[in-house]
Design a protein that fits this description.
The complex is a heterodimer of chains A (827) and B (336). By secondary structure, chain A is α+β, with helices and mostly antiparallel strands. In chain A, 48% of the residues lie in helices and 15% in strands. Chain A has five domains: 27 residues, no CATH class; 249 residues, no CATH class; 298 residues, no CATH class; 45 residues, no CATH class; 117 residues, no CATH class. In chain A, α6 packs antiparallel against α7. Chain A is elongated and about 125 Å long. The chains are: A alpha+beta (827), B alpha+beta (336).
């Protein structure tokens, strides 16, 4: 820089001399003369530090707050402010430039050396949260999760934020202090904020305000060119001069490079504008556009890449892995989310006898331990002559409807797990497994259709031995879950059934209690838990059930099925965990109808739902894979009972045109809920229905009130300070001067206050000397000797080194006060 | 709208399009907010600038009233902004030059005007040649903060600063005849304005010059009365200075012209100066120092050219043979 400056100066000197000779004159220097504050290097660096602080803190704060992570706000804010000031002052002069960078990197390295685990854990906490939220949002199969060495997230996230902000501040220092470039600043900050915004997680508005203020300030200041560090006296110029030597008419441009006051006023106006603007548009900002379900080429492509990145990291761009849905065979906890690919697993042909969901049972989970609901060792793993496992064949445990009217069902296994056969309730018999023309396994099943009811009676109750077997096998819960179960049963209000179940012997009454307890438990789940296909993975070494019931409180079918099985067991209800496929009536309606005689597939005694077709051919995809609970009813047998709440993701969107994106300004969505409560069947028609927009100022107004109060209060405080602070400060200075017997100085300060008052009242633009003041007042207000004398003494105090006496000072003060009083009443 | 504005408008439009696409394709409310912001900002920016721009007060003045060539000239340009809004993009276009010389410098001053403040910029020029230093601020514009529109301001300021030549200690052997102090020779004239012939010898009156005392006659006077010589006074006979300003050696001509005028005034001479202005010429009487400065300044406004023949003939006809015409050109003073 020194060398380039030398050559630059030499060149400028040559140009100067040439101009002087040619024109007879030449511009020697150009300088600003005005408020020292405007051109103060310290002030300029200070303002730029504030801009960098806003950008850094706004960015990291927005990113972290959008995921709900807690951190030590004052500590982080102050740390980032100090770091921002430090980097801003790097550009103070050449010494700070070199020294600053060295110190910065030393500090950086020291932080890594001493606080590595805090930074690492904080960063991992953010990334883990991010992965979980993204998995949840995109219904991903799995999410990567790294271990956090220090689990105190409040501290680790704070440290990590400061660390990231420090690095960011260094870059922003270049784009703001160096170039005041909006595009570069935007590129550095906006993608980080987008991390949360992309999945509709909104940060606190304060961070948005900070960021937008910086963007506006940088845009305005960058274009003005008056943001650079002013000159060090005597060495460089405050103006940047360009000489267009190439043009015929040589134009010299002189641009004033630094304007501290302009910068600060621009920043202040930007903040005020942003606060007002964001308050007014907060309704839009917080509106729910349900972008998750938006589908277009650009978004889908972006989503695919993001999903792959979240699931598998950077390697996903080279080797993408797709997961399939289907049965988990009792394996719980290792999955963050389910992402079915909706390929056909089964093709089921039958004639529905009712509108209830059809459950095709495959896997039975008997015993729970260590996140696995394993199948019972009791089940015989032998196969009949058809190659089908005997425990699955014909519901050997019990078929309460045996002997009743039956229907036929043809099940083609297209792509489901071939280990299992998929049997409807209640299968009477099944044919041998054959292969169809496509080479897929197919079986024909004779079944007696199960229908949900409030009570269940049968002429074919299970045997006493079987009942004893059930009660000895299907009431077990692991000891480590007892406390959790107790708490949940207490919370759900079903602990009251425990005592009655233990003493009640009448099967009908016991059945009633079982069903009531189950219904209460389901209601409890509906009200306090939510369904999601991407609940997030169970943390390492935590129990699946405990984590779900105590912390997660959201999950998919396996969560609810496993939990409900164990909860009911804890109050004495025998249950099982079951996996298979569920065909809802919606699937039936959407399926292919098979023309023909309705009685072909449904025997006499059963009333088909559709009386003009033979049946339906349903393509069951992996999206229909399901888990549910079986409850043993005394005197009846096992019935399926579904505890899974309905999906809350099925939001029906109707009008989401571009204009409706701005509807949140003064309108909110008008959603109404529709619900059909069907016992046992989780496939209730419960979903919010979009009915358009309705006028409301809650969205925007709700956010306006508190910030508005804050802004008004702040403005009032500023006004008060602006008005009275100079007076207070002057009073302090006068008192100090009087104490030191420096009456000249004291009277000087007092005269300045008086002068300001006069100038303000009479709208004068130039200050008046004491004698001029007397002449001025003589014409308008007062012309006595006291005033003249006072002004003379004031003149002496201001201009003469001779000290005035205390008596003169007192007289002057008294006279000035009287004049001020008269001015106040002078209109 | 200027070329710069178009560039920023294009950039601005690209930003809007990008955010609109973001809002449409990604359905992100934040993009909608940004789109709204980008629509609202220019309106506010241009509106506020248009409303408040007329409050700006632009003024300029030279610090000195005149300078001598070789010294520095200082000019202060002030922009007073009484509004509660900072103008960051004010441009003042100006031309600077010395009237005698054809080369002007065109400049542009770009500065800001913070709210409620007077912003002053001080230009310091080094001068080498004498002449009328002129600065003409002919154009003032203010651009809104987003640089989308440029407004013109009323500004037409012309400043003049006379640059006097350096004083020289030249001795001018410029009287056409040598003067003698001999009283015997009554034809000797001590002044170019006075005839050599003695009209009469009279009594001394207060105010008469010492050199006019006729000592011999006084010694001879029986009444011891002081006697002085009174010369024939040719009323039409005046000294006329004719500076010949041409591009060649203009600087030296002005310097000689000024020095000679001062020299004559120091010698208590009263004379006239004729300045040619195209085909016409103007005549100026010089009796004292102030007149010298005024004439010099007047000469600064004259075109630099060789007077045409017609003008010279008219000059000769007007002044006839009774006048002492002294031509001043470069470093020489010639009596013709």
């Amino acid at each position: 820089m020194i060398i380039t400056d030398y050559f630059k100066n030499k060149k400028e000197k040559k140009i100067f001399e040439a101009e002087l000779k040619t024109n007879g004159f030449a511009l020697e220097s150009i300088d600003y003369s005005g408020s020292a504050l405007m051109g103060s290097r310290l002030f300029l660096c200070l303002i730029r530090g504030i801009l960098i602080f806003f950008a850094c803190f706004g960015t990291v704060g927005a990113a972290v707050s959008s995921f709900g992570l807690r951190y030590n706000v004052p500590f982080v804010a102050i740390s980032i402010l100090l770091i921002s000031m430090f980097v801003a002052f790097i550009y103070y002069n050449s010494i700070t430039f070199y020294l600053g960078y060295i110190l910065f990197f030393i500090g950086f390295a020291a932080t890594i050396a001493l606080k590595y685990w805090y930074v690492n854990s904080g960063f991992q906490a953010f990334v883990n949260t991010l992965n979980q939220e993204y998995s949840l949002y995109f219904y991903l199969n799995s999410a990567r999760e790294a271990s956090e060495a220090i689990t105190d997230r409040y501290t680790t996230v704070s440290v990590a934020m400061i660390f990231v902000a420090a690095f960011l501040s260094l870059l922003l220092n270049i784009t703001i202090s160096g170039y005041m470039n909006l595009v570069e600043t935007f590129i550095l900050t906006f993608p980080i904020v987008q991390i949360g915004l992309y999945i509709e997680r909104r940060p606190s508005l304060i961070y948005i305000i900070m960021l937008l203020s910086v963007y506006i300030s940088v845009a305005v200041l960058g274009r003005s060119g008056h943001y650079m560090t002013p000159a060090i006296t005597g060495k460089k110029k405050n103006f940047r001069t360009f000489r267009s030597e190439k043009k015929k008419t040589k134009i010299h441009t002189h641009s004033y490079i630094s304007d501290g006051l302009g910068m600060i006023t621009t920043g202040a106006w930007s903040i005020v504008f942003c606060i007002v603007f964001i308050m007014l548009t907060s309704g839009i900002f917080y509106s729910n556009t349900d972008a998750r379900h938006e589908s277009n080429l650009l978004k889908n492509t972006t989503d695919e890449y993001i999903k792959a990145f979240v699931e598998n990291g950077i390697y996903s761009f080279f080797d993408r892995y797709q997961s399939k849905g289907g049965l988990s065979q009792g394996q719980l906890g290792g999955v963050s989310s389910v992402r079915p690919d909706y390929t056909t697993d089964l093709i089921v042909t039958y004639n529905p006898a009712n509108t209830d969901s059809l459950y095709l049972r495959a896997y039975i989970g008997t015993t729970y331990d260590n996140n696995v609901f394993s199948t019972s060792p009791y089940q015989l793993y032998d196969y009949n002559s058809a190659g089908i496992r005997s425990d699955m064949y014909s519901f050997p445990d019990h078929n309460p409807l045996l002997g009743g009217p039956a229907g036929k069902m043809n099940i083609v296994n297209v792509d489901a797990d071939a280990t299992y056969d998929y049997m409807p309730y209640y299968t009477e018999s099944a044919s041998a497994r054959n292969l169809n023309e496509d080479g897929k396994p197919v079986i024909d099943v004779l079944y007696e259709p199960f229908e949900f009811s409030d009570t269940y009676t049968t002429d074919n109750p299970p045997s006493e031995d079987y009942r004893l077997f059930v009660y000895s096998t299907y009431l077990d819960i692991p000891p480590y879950l007892e406390e959790t179960m107790k708490a949940i049963t207490d919370e759900a209000g079903i602990d009251k059934y425990m005592s009655v179940i233990h003493v009640e012997t009448d099967p009908e009454k016991r059945q009633a209690y079982f069903l009531e307890a189950a219904a209460d438990l389901r209601r409890y789940f509906y009200e306090n838990f939510s369904y999601t296909m991407a609940p997030g993975v169970t943390p390492y070494r935590q129990d699946f059930i405990t984590y779900f019931l105590n912390e997660q409180r959201r999950g998919y079918c396996a969560h609810f099925a496993a939990s409900s099985a164990l909860i009911l067991r804890s109050i004495g209800v025998p249950t099982r965990y079951v996996e298979g496929y569920m065909i809802t009536f919606t699937n039936v309606i959407e399926s292919e109808a098979i023309p023909g005689d309705t009685t072909d597939l449904l025997g006499d005694g059963l009333t088909p739902v559709f009386d003009n077709i033979q049946g339906v051919k349903v393509e069951v995809t992996d999206g229909s894979a399901h888990a549910w609970t079986e409850i043993y009813l005394d005197g009846y047998g096992w019935i399926p009972f579904d505890f899974t709440p309905p999906s809350s993701d099925n939001v029906i969107l109707t009008d989401y045109s571009f204009g409706s994106l701005f509807a949140g300004l003064f309108m909110t969505r008008d959603d109404t809920q529709q619900s059909d409560d069907v016992p046992g069947d989780t496939n209730a028609n419960t979903r919010p229905v979009f009915n358009g927009f309705k006028f409301s100022i809650n969205g925007s107004f709700g956010f306006i009130l508190l910030p508005l109060i804050f802004v008004l209060a702040g403005t009032a405080v500023l006004l008060v300070v602006h008005t009275y602070f100079p007076v207070i400060l002057s009073s302090i200075k006068i008192s100090a001067a009087v104490k030191k017997c420096d009456y000249n100085n004291a009277l000087n300060i007092r005269y300045i206050l008086f002068q300001k008052k006069v100038m303000k009242h009479y709208k004068l633009s130039t200050p008046l000397t004491p004698i001029e003041m007397y002449e001025f007042l003589k014409e308008r207000l007062v012309s006595d000797n006291d005033t003249l004398n006072t002004m003379r003494i004031c003149g002496q105090a201001i201009f003469s080194p001779q000290q005035i006496s205390k008596d003169d000072y007192d007289i002057c003060i008294k006279t000035i006060k009287q004049i001020e009083k008269k001015i106040g009443s002078d209109k | 709208m200027q070329r710069d504005n178009i560039r920023y408008i294009v950039t601005y439009t690209i930003f809007i399009i990008l955010f609109v696409l973001g809002a449409v394709f990604y359905k992100q409310p934040f993009f909608s907010v940004l789109v709204l912001l980008l629509f609202v900002l220019p309106i506010i920016s241009i509106y506020i600038t248009s409303r408040l721009k007329d409050k700006l007060i632009i003024s300029a003045e030279f610090v000195q009233h005149s300078i001598v060539a070789g010294n520095k000239a200082e000019m202060t340009v002030s922009v007073d902004n009484p509004a509660l809004f900072s103008f960051l993009n004010i441009n003042l276009d100006y031309k600077a030059g010395i009237l005698f010389y054809p080369n002007d410098i065109i400049g542009r001053l770009s500065l800001s005007a913070p709210l409620k403040r007077k912003n002053r910029v001080c230009f310091t020029y080094s001068t080498l040649y004498p002449g009328m230093f002129e600065i003409f601020i002919y154009n003032a514009t203010v651009t809104d903060p987003l640089h989308l529109h440029t407004f013109m301001l009323n500004c037409d300021i012309t400043l003049h600063l006379p640059v006097y030549p350096e004083k020289t200690d030249d001795e001018y052997p410029l009287y056409p005849e040598a003067f003698s102090d001999s009283e015997d020779d009554e034809n000797v004239s001590l002044s170019l304005t006075k005839s050599m012939d003695i009209k009469e010898i009279r009594d001394y009156r207060p105010g008469d010059k010492l050199k006019d005392i006729h000592w011999k006659a006084t010694a001879r006077d029986i009444n011891d009365t002081l006697l002085v010589k009174e010369y024939e006074n040719s009323a039409n006979r005046v000294i006329v200075l004719l500076p010949e300003f041409s591009q060649t050696g203009l600087n030296e001509t002005v310097r000689t012209f000024y020095s000679y005028m001062n020299y004559l005034v120091d010698k208590n001479e009263i004379y006239k100066v004729v300045l040619f202005n195209g085909d016409a010429f103007d005549e100026y009487s010089v009796k004292e120092k102030d007149d010298v400065d005024n004439v010099l300044i007047q000469s600064y406004y004259m075109p630099v050219h060789v007077p045409p023949e017609t003008a010279l003939l008219a000059f000769k006809h007007y002044y006839g043979e009774d006048n002492e015409v002294i031509w001043i050109t470069r470093n020489s003073v010639i009596r013709k």
